[in-house]
Design goal:
- By secondary structure, the protein is α+β, with helices and mostly antiparallel strands.
- It contains four helices and eight strands, in the order E-E-H-H-E-E-E-H-E-H-E-E.
- The chain has one domain: 3-Layer(aba) Sandwich (Aminopeptidase), CATH 3.40.630.
Length: 160
Amino acid sequence: MQPIFESENIRFVRVSEELVPDYLAMVNDWERVGKLIGSRRDPISEEKERRWVQKKLAEGAALFSMLEKDTGAFIGNIELMDIADGAGELGIAVTAAMQDKGYGTEAVRAMVDYGMDTLGLRRVFLKVFPDNARAIRVYEKCGFREYDRTEDDVFMEVTK
């Protein structure tokens, strides 16, 4: 797969139907990944995931799969969503096997740079569950600052 951009240890490639088994293993791992990226509880089917990939490709979404440079192993997906007025919302999911290895921090920094330098964004924002302390630490290391909080979400941003 041809990388769209790279960081030190990660190749960022377009999402692909070829990677659907990896996506399903990640998002359907409820305890270690799935519960951190949404409110659904039912497993996602292969057919639904393939439709999602096709839709995102047709939209030209700023959505990338992350592959480890040395091995080609799947790390996760990262996206800038709802891009408008110089801002975009960041979303990231990292497989359980690739967590706690620095890939999340590296990926967030690279995606913010891509959004600002390539897409011309001035602001990248996100929301994270308040009990996801590990993710909040990653975002803070990457320059994000909290600007609002509810019972359900912490809202963070980084600006240019």
